[in-house]
Amino acid sequence: MPVTVVVGTQWGDEGKAKVIDLLAESHQIVARYQGGHNAGHTVVVGDQKYALQLVPSGVFYGHVTPVIGNGVVVDMPTLFNEIDTLESRGISCARLKVSSLAHLIFPWHQSHDAMSESGLGENKIGTTLKGIGPAYADKARRVGIRVGDVRDPKRFKTLVHERAVAEQKVLSALGGEKLEIDAIVAKFVDLAVRLVPYVCDTVNFLHESLERKENLLL
């Protein structure tokens, strides 16, 4: 099976993105399968330097399809800031595919992250406060909102509002900050419209790619 996997040792700053960039040229698909936007990956192309947090570094090759898999938690503001920055510099993200099963990060995840870290005092773990851990917790609790939900605008709006109201109750009980619920709903509904063209059943997409004997880099 034509699959190459790059695995780090959980230390961080190991140069994984650089290795992936070197290997991507001989692959048709570069897929990210876990994590969020807490770590940045720097890739140098010629005399240009690019910083990536969510988009797989295979995006720099015209023949590569970059895939964000279902194990990733996606922060839409960060994703589109990254896409806009890349495209403003001539790097097309039109081939990008985002798993319909990936979970989304919302402001309440970041609020929970900050409160949890603050409560640990001197024993804090040093989280980046990006809401990644709480988003995975919601995934495990089966209350998270997934990328595929953006394809139904009315339902997505309802889901975001309901989750925001529920999370506000929890945050208030813990002495946390007040969420600007209407502003959050409006912002994420707009972002959802932008995300729709990228949404893909990446499980079937990757299996079909392997059946065609295409080279896959994880």
Fold and architecture overview:
With 218 residues, the chain is α/β, with parallel strands linked by helices. The chain has helices at 16-24, 76-88, 107-119, 132-141, 153-173, 181-195, 202-211; strands at residues 3-4, 29-32, 41-45, 48-52, 65-68, 73-74, 97-99, 103-104, 199-200, 216-217. The chain folds into two domains: 3-101 and 197-217, Adenylosuccinate Synthetase, subunit A, domain 1 (Adenylosuccinate Synthetase, Chain A, domain 1); 103-196, Adenylosuccinate Synthetase, subunit A, domain 2 (Orthogonal Bundle). It is 42% helix and 14% strand. The strands form three sheets. A six-stranded parallel beta sheet has the order 1-10-2-5-7-9, sandwiched between helices. Strand 3 (41-45) and strand 4 form a beta hairpin. Helix 3 (107-119) crosses helix 4 (132-141) and helix 5 (153-173) runs antiparallel to helix 6. The protein is globular and about 55 Å long.
Salient structural properties:
globular, 2 domains, 7 helices, two-stranded antiparallel ribbon, 10 strands, about 220 residues, 6-stranded parallel β-sheet, Adenylosuccinate Synthetase, subunit A, domain 2, alpha/beta, single chain, Adenylosuccinate Synthetase, Chain A, domain 1
